Amino acid sequence: MTTATAEPAIEDPFASLNPEQRAAVEHDIGSQAPRPLLVVAGAGSGKTNTLAHRVARLIGAGADPQRILLLTFSRRAAGEMSQRASGVLHRLLGRGAAARTQAPVSLPWAGTFHSIGARLLREFAGRIGLDPQFTIHDRGDAEDLMGMVRHEIGLSRTEKRFPMKGTCLSIYSRVVNSRDPLDQVLQAYFPWCAEWEAQLKTLFGAYVDAKQEQNVLDYDDLLLFWAEMAADPVLGAELGSWFDHVLVDEYQDTNRLQAAVITGMKPDGRGVMVVGDDAQSIYGFRGATVRNILDFAGQFTQPAHLITLERNYRSTQPILDASNAVIGAALERHAKTLWTDKVSAIKPQLVLIPDEAEQARWVCSRILEQREEGVPLKSQAVLFRAASHSAALELELMRRNVPFVKFGGLKFLEASHIKDLLALLRFAQNPSGRLAGFRVLQLIPGIGQATATRVLDAVGESSDVAATLAAFPVPARCSVEWQAFCALYARLRTPGLRWPQDLELARDWYAPHLERLHDDFQVRALDLDQLVALSGGHANRESFLAEITLDPPEATSDRAGPPLLDDDYVILSTIHSSKGQEWKSVHVLNVVDGCIPSDMATGNQDDIEEERRLLYVAMTRARENLHLIVPNRFFIKQQSTMGDRHVYATRSRFVTPVMLKHFEESAWLSADKRELRTPMPDSVRMLVRDRARNAWK
Ligand SMILES: Nc1ncnc2c1ncn2[C@@H]1O[C@H](COP(=O)(O)OP(=O)(O)OP(=O)(O)O)[C@@H](O)[C@H]1O
């Protein structure tokens, strides 16, 4: 490394790291065969920061960025990691002041497991019998295809109701990702479906056939095929030889298949580093297993080195005390106790409030008060267990004109107009994809399921799809629309079309349909604009379709659009989507039994433990102020015959009486009038508890 004389003095970007972080960053630097490394660390202990420094250190020591595989949980995390590593690297190279203006280091192999898997599969497609033009089904598409197959093989007409398509896909996915046999998965997680084991096997076989015929892969296939390649002695070794370093963030949320990908590519663990926190493992419901962390040390042909980070840099000591108490009651975990030197006299608040409407008003008022005290809206977040829990608060924020952005709610790709447009592009990309074709064809007025099926059958047998479509005898009443569609389709299939022209053509064709189908077409048109804006970042249609399916934008514009015009807005987020982030002030809604733990998740002990970790994740997002809100009356949406109703709620079981000393409790009868705040005498507390219990008798 050389420094020109005119450049500022080299600053040591690693000076701020603590000894354990530094040990992780320096681990086997300069060695030809770096041993596998596991960094286990508590919330806010700088895992992600350490990983970014490690990447910079490796590159600074001569590693080729093209040969670094960096696997993160989301695309956003991959981008942030590249940014952070660049900053460190520029400082390392003595360009401290200019670091912010320097282009980030390009890490071409930084991304999610799924997106990297998709890229590798396209590279290797020819050798593993895949057509490289494959399209990727998101969860919704996969569910629909499962539904179609379920219907085709007669399972939708069974006398006793066969599991719904969504359940079938969940079972299938769990089997694939956990690598456990079907009967075990059924017994453990779907006991009410166990009687259908034989039929499910048939269904899953037919589903796999359908995917193959239509040249589509679902999310699980991206991992499954990658793991299969990695397990092959020849392909696995070849894949492994592409990368000198394999770094994985958030390892606690990986599943067995993902672990198999790593061990297949790097059986001796050379150059492998993973970071994670077993206490933050919150994706068990998707088949992630905390065993990956617990078993990491013995997974390779040489033992892994372990470094533990316990110093927390994020939260004040009272917030940590409360969080440690909550996670301390967990049944099984890596023993570690977080500490910090951030003293504070402010304990986390436990706020009792009459109902959800008051909760919304109260939170909104506190957010505004804090803003008056100088805390920008962006430094404040409201977290909740399920996306629907923020409905009352969203209304209140709108009423008071407080801008917000919501993460983890209705996903962009779930909106029907986005699905329509993407289906059109997918059908142009891969005419064998029946699901996309089925959706698009029915956009044309006069074409229903029967005609669409016949068209797709004809397409399936044709070598010139555009010509087949043009010649297809559709009912006379739709011939004008049909011709317009065929002309569009032919253009979309024309070689040499310059992306994103395809998307613009598709949008123009779709515009009148959007207007015909939706009253709020103007709002929805904004989403389509957003889609066009996103398209610019991609080289071609294929990469756009793959990426958008794998890592969709978080929110639709009717929610996220207007607030984004403001430069300050509150963050509303599900706890799952808050992973890896931090805010100065955090409000957690509905800290009551039935929400945390969710009443959907009280089936078995593992589920309950995962809910406990969720609360821990939520609490450890806060830097200075943490509020857990406990509404006394809570509205639940029932699937049962009782219908939706209000219930009396009790404080979440994860905040036990012995933990109350870590909180400051307060009760509010009304959100707005400060004088109505009461310090809550014990007698009242007893009353409230009794009432809550009686409601369940
Ligand atoms: N050595 C350090 N000195 C000062 N601040 C640090 C240090 N290491 C990390 N931090 C800060 O601590 C905070 C948490 O870091 P980071 O996000 O990397 O933690 P994490 O372990 O990935 O957290 P979590 O798992 O809870 O999401 C960040 O604000 C980061 O800048």
Entry summary:
With 697 residues, the chain is α/β, with parallel strands linked by helices.
Structure description:
The chain is α/β, with parallel strands linked by helices and 697 residues long. It folds into four domains: 19-118 and 222-309, P-loop containing nucleotide triphosphate hydrolases (Rossmann fold, 3-Layer(aba) Sandwich); 135-214; 317-410 and 560-667, Rossmann fold (3-Layer(aba) Sandwich), CATH 3.40.50; 412-552, PCRA, domain 4. It is built from 26 helices and 17 strands. Strands 9, 10, 11, 12, 13, 14, 15, 16 and 17 form a nine-stranded mixed sheet that branches. Helix 11 links the parallel strand 6 and strand 7. The protein is globular and about 75 Å long. Adenosine-5'-triphosphate is lined by residues 16-18, 21, 41, 43-49, 277, 280, 313-314, 580, 582, 620.
Write the layout of secondary structure elements.
Layout lengths: L18 H8 L10 E5 L5 H14 L7 E5 L2 H18 L17 E3 H12 L10 E3 L1 H14 L12 H14 L3 H8 L7 H18 L1 E3 H13 L1 H9 L3 E4 L7 H10 L6 E5 L14 H4 L10 E5 L7 H12 L20 E7 H17 L7 E5 L6 H9 L4 E4 L8 H14 L4 H8 L7 H12 L4 H7 L7 H14 L8 H17 L3 H15 L5 H10 L6 H9 L4 E5 L8 E6 L16 H15 L2 E15 L8 E4 L15 E5 L8 E2 L3 H13 L3
Parallel strand pairs: 1-7, 1-8, 2-3, 2-6, 4-5, 6-7, 9-14, 9-16, 10-12, 10-13, 11-12, 13-14
Antiparallel strand pairs: 14-15, 16-17
The chain binds adenosine-5'-triphosphate (ATP).
